[in-house]
Amino acid sequence: MLGLATTATATPTVAKNRVLCISGRVQPGFVRWFQSSSVAFYHSFSPSLRSNFCPVKAMAEADTISILEAQSPFTASGNKQALISLSDKKDLAFLGKGLQSLGYSIISTGGTASSLENAGVSVTKVEQLTCFPEMLDGRVKTLHPNIHGGILARRDKKHHMEALNKHGIGTFDVVVVNLYPFYDKVSSGGIEFEGGIENIDIGGPAMIRAAAKNHKDVLVVVDSQDYSALLEFLQGNQDDQLFRRKLAWKAFQHVASYDSAVSEWLWKQTEGDKFPPSLTVPLSLKSSLRYGENPHQKAAFYVDKSLSEVNAGGIATAIQHHGKEMSYNNYLDADAAWNCVSEFTNPTCVIVKHTNPCGVASRDDILEAYRLAVKADPVSAFGGIVAFNIEVDEALAKEIREFRSPNDGETRMFYEIVVAPKYSKKGLEILRGKSKTLRILEAAKNKKGKLSLRQVGGGWLAQDSDDLTPEDIPFKSVSGKAPQESELRDAEFAWLCVKHVKSNAIVIAKNNCMLGMGSGQPNRLESLRIAMRKAGDEVKGAALASDAFFPFAWNDAVEEACKSGVSIIAEPGGSIRDGDAIDCCNKYEVSLLFTDVRHFRH
What we know:
Layout: E1 23-25, H1 28-35, E2 50-55, E3 67-69, E4 81-85, H2 92-101, E5 105-108, H3 110-118, E6 124-125, H4 126-130, H5 145-152, H6 158-167, E7 174-177, H7 182-187, H8 193-198, H9 203-213, E8 219-221, H10 227-235, H11 241-270, E9 283-289, E10 299-304, E11 319-322, H12 328-341, E12 348-353, E13 356-362, H13 366-376, H14 378-381, E14 384-388, H15 394-402, E15 415-420, H16 425-432, E16 439-442, E17 451-456, E18 459-464, E19 476-477, H17 485-498, E20 506-510, E21 513-518, H18 524-535, E22 543-546, H19 557-564, E23 568-571, H20 578-587, E24 591-594
Parallel strand pairs: 4-5, 4-7, 5-6, 7-8, 14-15, 15-16, 22-23, 23-24
Antiparallel strand pairs: 1-2, 2-3, 9-10, 11-16, 12-13, 12-14, 17-18, 19-24, 20-21, 20-22
Helix pairs in contact: 5-9, 9-11, 15-16, 18-19
């Protein structure tokens, strides 16, 4: 094969400043032509007349060109070879020395080769095998038959091995590759579009996929944590196909996650719509759980590695400072508590049981807020999750540790989890002393505008997260009695609470404190009755919020609420019987507000 434009029968012409590369079988006539020309010629014949030459640029002053043999001509049946090309060079020296001690010749690229040489590891550079220099600003380095032929050839197919021998290509037994840091680059911010494009790896994924496809003969490694296992496997001369398949799976998963990041980023650079025609969500296993919602169900917890989730907060990335490992239900409850408490701007405590807030209170004094949140429903609060939107300091930690149930004044309150944005050193120390099992989480607030996903049989539902707060909407007075300022504030507080309660949802609140809530009932009237029963006599003069409109008013929920003594009702409106609700509130001199926003939570 000639590196010049010639045919099989034409006499090749060598011009000044041209590069000539010969690889493959050299015909005697071609050799005689070189010997008769003013060309410097060097050829070392193998027994079958195969050769592999690297090009050297001709000197302009002399009409000569030098053709040098590759420095490391490996045949298909030659030495054991490992190909290493890494962006993240963690533990590279350990890997290189380990492979070299096991008799592997190491082929490597650019910076990886330099790092190995600096560590005292012998390296053959890729261009010595390809007879071609790195080009196009590094875009083309390993995309060459001498590389991919050596990776993809099946050792059990005679014609594959004959093809390698014919072209003087050696096999690779180990391929260790990781990719350009595209994810880190584009998620760090400040990178231009062209910069993102240049950080898309091409040659790396090609080598990884090739090696993973041919994993029966080639071990592929994409994670530095697997270096020790790889060396142990090679040292034992094992033939464990399950080990090879696991590495191959990990390789394909690595490339799939990488490609999903590229796809997500590129979509945002084009359409930008939140709902693309197809969607890949990269998930990374954080922990295996003891069980799922129930002991007979196996479970695990995954972290969403989408670019949109980078530094976006949430329970998934919370730091656990203390306590037992998190369970499936712990994650659900902690998420509910954290999402609720994070919505409030004033110092607030939220207590959650089975994903529903059973106590919510906001006060300048966080100790008082905590006591009021417990008081709202002490029975439900026991064994629940308590969340704060400010730092847990020494005083608050002591109160959490020592506070007794308002029901008997003796039983010390027990919690599964405490979650907050931060802890003082002393506060954390005190909480750790409350219980060996108490899970202490430090979380960052969820960013707005996230994509919310939920699974149904055979598919997924996607929607915007429900980020609306009272500041985002108008509370329109539609009744004859206009609300006082304090009543309006109570209604806004109740409305913010009710969006976190499972439908059908009713919340009764006063003075920035939830007094009672009814959740998850098939009819709104029953949820109302539950909420009023929990609020007791405190319902008088309180605000009531409903997550959806009231379908009936007279002899139903609206009239019962008015008779109980509430002073103001906030609901979305939109019922064909809204007029009845207005008339009913006017009869009992109750203020009625329409928000035009529904807060279903299923």
